Each structure stands twice: as C-alpha cells, then as structure tokens.
Amino acid sequence: MDYPGLALEFMEKMYLLRQAKPHRQMNKSMHGECFVLQYIAHQQGVVVPGEIRDIMGISSARIAAALNNLERKGLVNRDIDPRDRRRVLVSLTPQGEEMAKMHNRELYEKTVEMLQLLGEEDATTYVRITGRLAELAAQMKETETVEAEETTETEKIEK
User: I need a labelling partner for 85 at 20 to 30 A (CA). Which of 2, 19, 75, 116 fits?
Assistant: First the structure.
C-alpha cells in the first residue's frame, strides 16, 4: 500500500471538500458559541470554563469572551461554586437550552441529508471509518501526552 501517496490524495480531497463548503451549518455547530452551547448541553448540567477551553483547544481569554457574549445574550449563567469560591460554574439558561436543542436539530437534519446523499453503503462505511479515526486520534493524543510527560521528567532529572 502506498500510504504516502494515499495521504497526498486524502489531503487534496480534504482541500476540495473545504473549498466546496458543504453544509456550513454543520461546520458552524462545531466551533465558537454554538459549540460551547452544545458542549454544556451534552454535559447535562454545569461545567467550568477550563473544560470548555481544553476541549476546544483555545485560550482562556477566548473562552471568557465567548462566555461573555453568551451571557449577554441570556444563554448561559456563570456562578461562583459554593464549595470552592475560586471556581466559576457555567450552565445554560432555559433560552440557552432551547438554542442548543435547535442547533442540535439542525445539525442532525444536515447530517441525515449528507448521509442519504452518500447512499447506504458509503454512509455506513463513512461513519465506521470516522469512528475509527476518532479512536486512533485519542490514542495518538494519549501517547503524545505520555511522551511529553516523560520528556519533562527527564529534563527535571538532568537538571
């Protein structure tokens, strides 16, 4: 198998896919304020800003700005944790819950549409491969984390 050649072909296809901008709503829901609402709703309750920051891979300042905007729009509440006054707890307002449900419905409908366009066999294969890629990405991330920790420990020992 020519994996380097296949990788180049894959990268080209991903570039073409990105240029085609399929289903902007699907892409929109995976970023920014929509993602924050979806994440909080998926956690079924209360989260701390650091959780959202880590899952999105963005800075504390960016997550604070997003939460400020969502709070101004009446979609989230930020409260001091009564058990640890240093922590801020973020939850959805009823309006935020409705917005998250609406975004989820729209994403679901677009996903169904995309999978129908692929057809039964390709749709099933796509979902299976996407799941496998998610597993492998998690494994790679875990390996990188362990390697980074080992490197840090080695550097401490050498000093």
Answer: 75
pTM for this model (two decimals): 0.70
> Which amino acid is it at 64?
A
Distance between CA atoms of 41 and 96, rounded to whole angstroms? 9
Q: What is d(CA 31, CA 19) in angstroms, rounded to the nearest whole number?
A: 18
Alpha helices by DSSP H, listed for the chain, are 3-20, 24-28, 32-42, 49-56, 60-72, 94-118, 120-158
Would you call 34 exposed, middle or buried from its count of C-beta atoms within 10 A (0-12, 13-18, 19+)? buried
Write the pLDDT tens digit of every residue in 75-95.
Answer: 999 999 999 999 999 999 999
| CB 1, CB 86: distance < 8 Å | no
45: alpha, beta or left? (left if phi > 0; alpha if psi -120 to 50): left
